[in-house]
Amino acid sequence: MAFVIPASARSWVPVEPNSDFPIQNLPLGFAQVSTMEYSVVSRIGDYAINLAELCAMGILNEEEFPTIEALLDFSPEEARLVRQTLYEMLRDDESVIDRRQVQKRAFIPISEIEMELPMDPPNYLDFFSGIYHAEHAGRLFRPDTEPLNRNYRHIPVAYHGRSGTVGLFDEVTRPNGVYLDSNGRVMFGPTRELDFEVELGCWFGESTGGRMVDTFEAPDHMLGLTLLNDWSARDIQRFESSPLGPLLGKSFATSVSPWIVTFDALEPFRVSGMTQEPDPLPHLQRMGSQHYAITLEAWIQSPRMSEPQLVCRTSSEMMYWSFAQQAAHITSNGTPIESGDLHGSGTLSGRDPSEYGCLLEISERGRERILLRETGETRTYLEDGDTVIFRGYADNGEVHLGFGEASWTVSAG
Hints:
The protein is α+β, with helices and mostly antiparallel strands. Helices cover 15% and strands 28% of the residues.
């Protein structure tokens, strides 16, 4: 049973209106909280909450959370219990705890901690579940054929990515690879078509143990969502992806945001998802509403700009296959999902050009230049020094919560 914090709840901790981190959120992350100390943390407003310190104070039961120094072994149920305890501690009518002591010992201004990768993923899979992106990309590359391959509406398509290059990067280095130049010559060098992809990532908190799980059971293994950018070197990817999937064009970097927003926090934003035609096979059929209404944005700022420019506003409702369906598909052949595994949604583009979730689509495969209005510069793909910013949030008129901001600057290879 999901633990949903009431929309009317308020905290004794000051929180700015429309903060991504009200008491209804209470996400999980991992941080360096002092020179030699690391801990699982949560967040409210502009403060991180050191959960190891709450254990030392007896507010969290150490016997229930023996691995509080790491998220890797957290189950969704343990995350639920942590959020319940935090809510009881932070609610504005709480009168038992010593608020001054809690603030002194466990609260850290967010500017004073170093966020770390929540978990080192044993496996990383990037799916292709954004149907409008799949259709648009299909038309760009195969204009004379059906944009979707026949398998698309029958199975969640994915490639197995490189987990070792998933990280919280401030900078992304332009990768080298093999590509065709404008004269059709095979060349080696830095990509000329560096791109971002607006995605969500799903972290798993409990192993499936090699059992096949259906879409009803899959959420019992899913810890929460994060912003995800599966960087792409389009020219390298295009040359190497025949007949197999991408390698060097993708393996150099996958960026995530530091906070895991739990599915309990996202419960008020559940939606049924788009109609699936034909009906999925029995083991892939959805059980209830398994999609979420989350707004996703991408911004670009060149070195000459004083403010970033919005280039995409899209939604997680563009997912054809839910994360639960992805998990059911992966486990259907006996493959275990391990604690800490990460699944990417795939690029979540909409139908309108303002909703295109990558530069491949926005620039129509490099044929249309994007105007950066402040300086008059133009782009088809990212240039050295450009900064990409992702934002994600959910808002139903009663509650606003989100993932915070993630940004990355492109450096020369």
